[in-house]
Amino acid sequence: MSEIFGIPTQALFGQLLIGLINGSFYALLSLGLAVIFGMLNIINFAHGAQYMMGAFCAYFLLSKLGLGYWWALLLAPVIVGATGIVIERLMLARLYQLDHLYGLLLTFGLALVIQGLFRNEFGSSGLPYNIPKGLEGGRNLGFMFLPNYRAWVVVASLVVCLATWFVIEKTRLGAYLRAATENPALVQAFGINVPRMITLTYGFGVGLAALAGVMAAPIYQVNPLMGADLIIVVFAVVVIGGMGSIMGSIVTGFALGVIEGLTKVFYPEASNTVIFIIMAIVLLVRPQGLFGQR
Amino acid sequence: MRFQKRTLMAAAVALAAGTAQAQVSDGVVRIGVMNDQSGTYADLAGPGSVVAARMAVEDFGAAKKGMKVEILVADHQNKPDIGSNIARQWYDVDKVDVIVDVPTSSVVLAVNEVTRQKNKALIVSTGATSDLTGKACSPNAIHWTYDTWSLANGTANAVVKTGGNTWFFLTADYAFGHALERDTEAVVLKNGGKVLGKVRHPFPSSDFSSFLLQAQASKAKVIGLANAGADTTNAIKQGAEFGITSGGQQFAGLLVFLTDVHALGLDKAQGLLLTEAFYWDLNDQTRAWSKRFAQGHKGAMPTMVQAGVYSAVLHYLKSVEALKSDDGPKVIAKMKEMPTDDPIFGKGMVRQDGRKIHPMYLFEVKKPSESKGAWDYYKVRATVPADQAFRPLKDGNCPLVK
Q1: Which site among B7, B168, B209 would you substitute to test the A interface, given the most A Cβ atoms closer than 10 Å to its Cβ?
Q2: Owning domain of residue A29
Q3: Which of B43, B206, B264 sits opposite A220 (nearest CB)?
Q4: Per residue in A34-82, pLDDT tens?
Q5: How far does the CA of residue A290 sit from the closest CA of chain B (Å)?
């Protein structure tokens, strides 16, 4: 069997695929962040907490109402997105005139409060959530055993990411949105309700986080801390990709998943730091991020 | 972001402790429960350990005996630097006499050094490293409930003897994981087994798929999980997904707590072999005590380390009473001199190197069909008698043992 750096090529393919799977979570989450930052200029630190709420929402739908995974995939983003809309209307809308820092502090505080409440109620060891019927098991690809559920996660996340990119960059609605961030007064003058559009955009970004949460529930434990662990990495992904760049966050999300996956083979001890090393290098060489414009 | 959050919380804890302890009188025994109140180890020790410590003070009858006992609580967030800072603050400013519980071996070793410098007392229940009664042993410390050697001795012995003779380790990359891996590897090799490979994963990790794939490729019969808490449950859950068990490989959870089994659910955890010092459903006394505990802890049954905190605090208070002093090393010496006796661990003793001695149990996790409901999870596979449950005194290289 041929080898690369002492690792059999077959094993390497497996690890690349795993990296892609993890990358799809990074991509989904950083996409939501990029949409919110690009359109609202708010750095949404509550994103991790909203991802966690998505997973909890799936758990409650199943345990209290008997609604399974597919329903959760549909309902959780709507429910959590609605809480996002309430937050935007009641709090964030008052901060648009101020410095980025205020939005960051507010959402950071919200994240701590939300996580604290969930932890107080449900403890820290997590709640079980099973893989949906129909996606259990897996197939042997020759070089690795690929669980069906993980394959589904990659495909679903790719579709969602590309659809979002398409809507924002290629449709009339997206054009309105982008125009509204550039010059809200002018767009409003054309008869478009800008504040409502901004509110819905935030709701959509939060819904994306919740969707990622539902997709994560069968893989990880449904845990109040699940978002706090992930959000720091996702922020690094957004910074590397370039704040606010939609395509940038998708591509870097997948790419960094792969890089992290390879680190887990060659030097596992560094696998939780490698992304931050890359972030530091990118910030030194290209401070606006790989895909950033400004 | 995490750094900010932690410093803020540490400041809050420090403030809370500081104001509560403004007036200091020497007539008070102050017990500091230091553990992870909010992170991955919060359910298995955390607030439950505080409940257990309070029960011990109550059952000792401190109020009736006219002894004033106070309990302080702090969150060390699994960080050695935060842990040693809290310990210094407690010993120097808040007049704490003994620190108990302390999960996370890296924090344990740090707090152990501070305790030695300040000449106070430390009783560890949740921290696991067997170095605490080995090369790091101290006249100021006792290791109460279990250690990495006893886990390896229980679980690994049983697994190797039933044919699991080739191993691959998934090890949490810090003092605890390293100690558990080392002690388990020794047992595997001693029984004629082989170690085919190991991966050191960052602590804490949430995604284990890459490591599991490496374990799968090694073709080892047994995948030894030298980690704990959410790391263990995530590895087992994802292992089922990647067909580890259906592919003929077997997990050995080297440190699995009752709360982990509860979080996994029996369908994922069934058949798992694990070693613990205590289970609530062992006998009438453990059942009665655990029922009381659960009433004070949102209905959750105690883990072995929470039970250990109860047993340790009770013995500590008895020794303080006998000695009529709360001087750190003197109480520790008295605790070693007096035999231990409590309703949940039964009779035992504390050895010269600081090791508390009692039987350990090898449990098997029940099938869902065997369980009568929530928390009915274990059946006893074997009892390791007290004289075989822990590392022999002479093998530990503890400087206190001549």
Answers
A1: B209
A2: 3-285
A3: B206
A4: 889 888 888 899 999 999 999 999 999 999 999 999 999 999 999 999 9
A5: 23
ipTM of the complex: 0.83
Q: Minimal Cα–Cα distance from B97 to chain A, Å?
A: 29
pTM here is: 0.85
| Cβ within 8 Å, pair B259-A231 | no
By C-alpha distance, which of A223, A229, A202 is closest to A103? A202
Q: How far apart are CA A196 and CA B338, in angstroms?
A: 73
Residue B21 scores a pLDDT above 50: no
Beta carbons of B1 and A45 less than 8 Å apart: yes
Could you give the maximum distance between any two Cα atoms of chain B, in Å?
63
Residue B3 is predicted with a pLDDT of 44
- Please report the domains of chain B, with CATH numbers, ordered by start residue: 2-146+284-358 (3.40.50.2300), 149-276+359-389 (3.40.50.2300)
Dist CA B73 CA B100 (whole Å):
10
The residue with greater pLDDT, B149 or B19, is: B149
A244: pLDDT strictly greater than 80: no
Selected for mutation to probe chain A from B199, B210, B214 (highest A CB count within 10 Å) is B210
Tell me which residue in A14, A130, A273 faces B213 most closely, judged by beta carbons.
Answer: A14
Question: A117: pLDDT confidence band, cut at 50, 70 and 90?
Answer: very high
CA distance A278 to chain B (A): 18
Question: Is residue A210, in this structure, part of any structural domain at all?
Answer: yes
Does pLDDT of B331 surpass 90? yes
pLDDT band, very low/low/confident/very high, at B1 (cuts 50, 70, 90): very low
The CA distance from A128 to the nearest CA of chain B, in Å, is 6
Q: Where are the alpha helices (DSSP H) in A123-183?
A: 148-170, 172-182
Burial of A185 (0-12, 13-18, 19+ CB in 10 A): exposed
Q: With respect to residue A36, please indicate whether it lies within any of the assigned structural domains.
A: yes
Closest among B67, B55, B17 to B324, alpha carbons compared: B67
Q: How many A×B Cβ pairs under 8 Å?
A: 118
CATH of the domain at A230: 1.10.3470
The pLDDT of residue B6 is 52
Is residue A292 domain-resident?
no
- Decide if B230 and A138 are in contact by the 8 Å CB cutoff: no
Residue B323 burial (CB count, 10 A): 16
Mean pLDDT of A266-271: 88
